[in-house]
Amino acid sequence: MKTVKEKLQLLRIKMKENNISAYIVCTQDFHGSEYVGDYFKEREYLSGFTGSAGTIVVLEKEAALWTDGRYFLQAEKELEDSDIDLMKMFQPDVPEIDEYLFDKLSENGRIAFDGRTVSIAFAEQLNKKLSLKNISFVYDADYIDDFWEDRPELSKEPVWRLSEKYAGVDSFEKMRILRKKMSDNNTDVFVLSALDEIAWLLNLRGNDVLCNPVFLSYMIIYADSAVLYADEKIFNEDIKEYISSLKIEIRPYMSFYSDLKVIKAENHVLIDSRNSNYLIKMSLPDKIKITDKQSPVILMKSVKNKTEYENERKAHIKDGIAVTKFMYWLQKNVGKMQITEVSAAKKLEALRNEQEGYLGPSFTPIMAYREHGAIVHYSATEESDIALQPESFLLSDTGGHYYDGSTDITRTFPLGRLTDAEKKAYTIVLTAHLRLKNTKFPYGMTGTQLDCVARQPLWQYGMDYNHGTGHGVGYILNVHEAPNGIGWQMRNKKNMYAVFEEGMITSNEPGFYCTGRFGIRHENLILCLKGDKNENGQFMYFENLTMVPFDWDAIDRKYMTDRDISLLNEYHSEVYKRISPYLDEDEKAWLREKTMPR
């Protein structure tokens, strides 16, 4: 097996042969996905860094990797002795990629990358900065493929149809609404490449990306027809007939780019530069008129219809049963039997499997004991797996897909003896979580504005966390979904969060991390709904979907107000009411004690 240094050397040989000054490797697949199939994991193959976000720039004599605060600790460890420098994004004195390249490259340099894995927005940001040095792009280069032996094949998993019983709205209606939005934008062709958008639009689901029920595909949508680009083998005859009934033609996955080149120049094309790759734009005819605007499908699917969010309530009862049973089992058995991070994750997965309609995990589980909890996106391996002891915390961030919807929950479980510092952090983060959920606000606000509600309790004690407070969640789709979210660290107007609409589902997950000691995160999914409307406008509020208790054993009441305590008691009352009917007598008695008003 080649080392990282050997792989970098092979890449630099290819760069020299082609007169390339810099080579860029992004995390994305051809569709801008956050999580990707094994075929697309070039960045991981090249560097050894396994996080879900990161970009590598390789120069003649140096290399650097950019990633965000979720992965700083993980990247430091995985990049050790790799000759790849870690660039901690959004930190003081850390240049952005375009600034780094502008500083490092000489006039008339050449940058190469696989244009199918680089977004239009990113490429244009580079071009805006680097054109001052007359630096050009080679955008059809996949040099790593030349030396990646035994590279996995493109996934071709079967596709299945999501009935209207779960989807709420049929695909005919979704296509009608989409075409109306295309017309409103004076466009007659929509080029769509985001996998979750295609799956949602067609009420189809697949299994080409781990934990993300999507299938590799592109679409070109016209005013009265459409073409779906995918491997025909993934569709059974019933699905093919269904697709045909929608006036959609199936063509080979790899023929997409050649078809872009022959779209008639008089057409007006809609593309979303944030979710479309650079080769898409470069494949369109030169004189064609392009409108670059956020895909209409993004907002359409983020606002769950009544059927979807009522189903989500059912999914979260099922998930709450599984996680509550896990919490009971964990606290009854830790210190009495061998339990490790990996075996704990397997136990929770087994409990979810007992629930009707369970489809599988919505992301790779995080089971992080003690100091591992300070690594925000830690994932236990055979090498890192450690045994749980009756002390400190287990941070558990997991989720599942059900026919009723998708879940994402984090609980920080106290396993026994805690320090004062651990109790303080647990309590303060919990107050942040409670206060955000119980905020009422006027329509028109975004998560950028609401973020400070969650952070203020931590800021009061000089504490903070280096990740967003919340993200949108798809309906049996990607667990991270735009455009709704909660956070203040937005870098530009194009990435601003959307206004909260009734039906949006968002995570509420403040945290605190003490490197080398412990991590705290409390996460529920919350549903945005309309509240009172009066002379001051329409007010909005959040409903908790997640139904799993927090633990009074980890709480230091002196960091809570009377209102905080009342809010926790109200939540616990709801948890007991909804979950206890599904527990056995011992579990029910235990839950009654855990949720008793204090």
SSE topology sketch:
Elements: H1 4-17, E1 22-25, H2 42-47, E2 55-58, E3 63-67, H3 72-78, E4 85-88, H4 97-104, E5 110-112, H5 120-130, E6 136-138, E7 160-161, H6 164-167, H7 171-184, E8 189-192, H8 195-202, E9 204-205, E10 218-222, E11 226-229, H9 237-245, E12 248-251, H10 256-260, E13 268-271, H11 278-283, E14 289-292, H12 296-302, H13 306-333, H14 341-353, E15 358-361, E16 366-369, E17 393-398, E18 400-402, E19 405-406, E20 409-414, H15 420-437, E21 441-442, H16 447-459, E22 470-472, E23 481-486, E24 505-508, E25 511-514, E26 518-521, E27 524-534, E28 537-544, H17 562-579, H18 585-595
Parallel strand pairs: 1-5, 3-4, 5-6, 8-13, 11-12, 13-14
Antiparallel strand pairs: 1-2, 2-3, 7-9, 8-10, 10-11, 15-18, 16-17, 17-20, 18-19, 21-28, 22-23, 24-27, 25-26, 27-28
Helix pairs in contact: 4-5, 13-14, 15-16, 17-18
How would the global form be characterised?
globular
Helix content: 25-40%
Going by helix content, strand content and strand pairing, the class is alpha+beta
Rg estimate, integer Å: 25 Å
Binned strand content: 15-25%
Give the N-terminus to C-terminus distance in angstroms.
58 Å
User: Main β-sheet: number of strands, strand sense, barrel status?
Assistant: 6 strands, mixed
Number of strands: 28
Strand line-up across the major sheet:
4-3-2-1-5-6
Sequence stretches where pLDDT stays below 50 over 5 or more residues:
none
Q: Oligomerization state of this entry?
A: single chain
